[in-house]
Structures are given as structure tokens and as C-alpha cells.
Amino acid sequence: MSKHPVVIVGSGLAGFTVAREFRKLDAESPVVIVTRDHGGFYSKPMLSNAFAQKKNAESLLMKDAARMADDTNVQVMANATVVAINPQLKQISLSDNQVLKYDQLVLALGADPIQLPLQGDGAAEVLSVNDLDDYRRFREAVEGKKEVAILGGGLIGCEFANDLAIAGFIVNVIDLAPQLLGRLLPPESAIFIQRKLEDEGIAFHLGTTTQKIERSGGKLRLTLANGNIIQADVVLSAVGLRPRTALAAAAGIKINRGIVVNGLLQTNVEDIYALGDCAEVEGRVLPFVMPIMQAARALAPTLTGKSTPVHYPAMPVAVKTPCCPTVVSPPEPNAQGEWKVEGGTEGIKAIFSHQNGQLLGFALMGSAVQEKAALTQQLPTLS
Length: 383
What we know:
This protein has helices at 13-25, 57-60, 65-72, 132-142, 155-166, 187-199, 246-250, 289-303, 372-378, and strands spanning 6-9, 31-34, 41-42, 61-63, 75-77, 82-86, 91-94, 99-101, 104-107, 111-113, 147-151, 170-175, 203-206, 210-216, 219-224, 229-232, 234-237, 241-243, 259-261, 272-274, 279-281, 317-319, 326-329, 338-343, 347-353, 359-366.
């Protein structure tokens, strides 16, 4: 048995999955999860489609910290903020001056919403939804309101837009990119989903940015770079996430876009590992459920002494837009190839292939999503 516990910082999907997988292999060694929030477990992807299902924050919470501790046989330290890591002494310091020794340290810190540099006296009222507490605040803010403006037309922005429109809100979406889901879709596919979302009553303002948000007569007044003015009761920012790296950087752990780790999820510092939204695994930041699950399943045996590199199978992503069912497996950023798009009013299939014919990615919409399984089998693994 280890002298000190395996300490996991973070109680999201990454942190709790590592704990569960570790317990399958080692029932005795102490494990401590340290988290700055309530320590309960919920499905984060559910946050962007909970309005239409009339779910509040309480109903989304699957298990509280006490239940999670019992289920995984670990200690959960909730509402505890880690302020420093000392790799030499193998300990972490908490904001209440507690010091916790570790045998191995796992950083599952997640990511923070990117904050846009907005002007105006209403800029501070912009909300984002990155966790259950954020969702609770957002629901309270829109209670009895009608108009919501969303900054960002990516995956999360589109999911929230569709969800809020179904729930009866008037929704405007603003994005600098000329198309929706710019990092995932070819232009033809983006047009297809935009039209489906517009049929739900959602208005899009693409190729422009929000410059100023002012409080005006009980409303928020958004001034766009193209000169247009939009009014809203609530503004939601969904422009993306930035991996939480400051704690690691201050401890001398290498960072780039995320906390840099190798295929074993090891940082450059002995006995410190990272996974999930905060991690950059061999150059990739993969903030989706399936990569996180794969990483946790590989890390658990590594923590028990059996080095196990993470391997990623083909992992298509489902975009939760009920008006336009969508499944995307985007090609690698530097992949050499081209998109070929076919389809009609009921569905559209986009295939990204190398010039040698090797399938490297796809985007399926509407009736075309039924081809997901067959196409996924043809994709290469990421590692």
C-alpha cells in the first residue's frame, strides 16, 4: 500500500472515471479527490440541452459528493481549492492552509470559458455555462425572460440555441466565423444545419463580432461590428474553453495549449499526470467524452504500476441539435485531403478523404446519420 494517497484534483468526468477505473484494479490504496466545487456528479453534456427537457440544476445532479465517495471508495474533499503544487515535497497546498501529501498526483482540472474583451456597462452581465452552478445561475437569469443572445456559433452555441428555441425563447447567435461549426463542418454542411436552425426561429449574425453591450431600459443592447443592434434579456457566451494550466505552470510543469503529457498521460514532472479538458496529449486537446473515458481507462493501470499508453479509436461526436441530428468525426487539423458533399433536403453526407481514398473524417446530418456505424469502422485510429 502507498504511504500517501493518489490525489486527483478535479471531480468532473475525468477525475471520477480515473477513480472508478483505479478501484477496479486496486481496492486498498487510498485515493483522495480534491475539488473546488460541490463534488457531486452530473453529465456535463446535458447542460446544453436541459431547458427543453425542463430540467433544473438539482434534477441534473446524479449523485452528491457523499454518494460518490461511497460508490468509489475514495475520500472526496469538496469546496477545497488547490493553490499550489510542490513536486519536490510531493504535496499540494489548499486555500485553507491545509497541506496534502501525495504518492501520485492526477490533474483533472478542466477548462475555463474564454472571456471576450467586450465594452459597455452590460459586459459584466455576460454569462457562460461550464458547470452545474453556472447552469443554475443561467436558469435563474432567464426566468420569466424571452430574448437570449448567444456569442458563438460552435458546437455548444448551436446546442444551446436549439435547446432555448425549443423552450420558447427568441434566440440570436453572433459569430465571427462566416459559417456555423467552423472547426467541424465543410461550408455546405454548415449551411444545411443553419437553415434547419433558422426554421426553429433562430437568427444568425455571422462574420461579425459583438463590440459593446450596454444596459438599456431593462434590456441588454448589443452593438455588433457590422453596425447592427440586437436587444436581449440575457447574453450567453459560448465562444470556447481554455484549458486550466496556471496551477501546473506555477509548479514547473510544462504547458502549451494545455498541460503537456505523453502517451502515458505523464507530465514532465515525476508522478504527476493530467487528463481531460486541461491536458494536451501528444499535441492534441480532445475535450469530448469519449477521449476522456479512453484516457481514464489507460491512466488507471499506469497508476498501479502497469504502464498503459492511451489509444484513441475513431470517436464521432454527436451534436445535440434535435432539429438537425448531426454526427461529426472531423479530420485531424493537418490532414491532407478534401471534402465531398452529397445529399438533399432530408439529409446530407460529407466525406473527407485522402487522395488515396482513405476515409479521414465525415459529417452526417439528418437522414444520413444512419451511416455513422459503417463509416466509423472505416476511420483510422488516432494513435
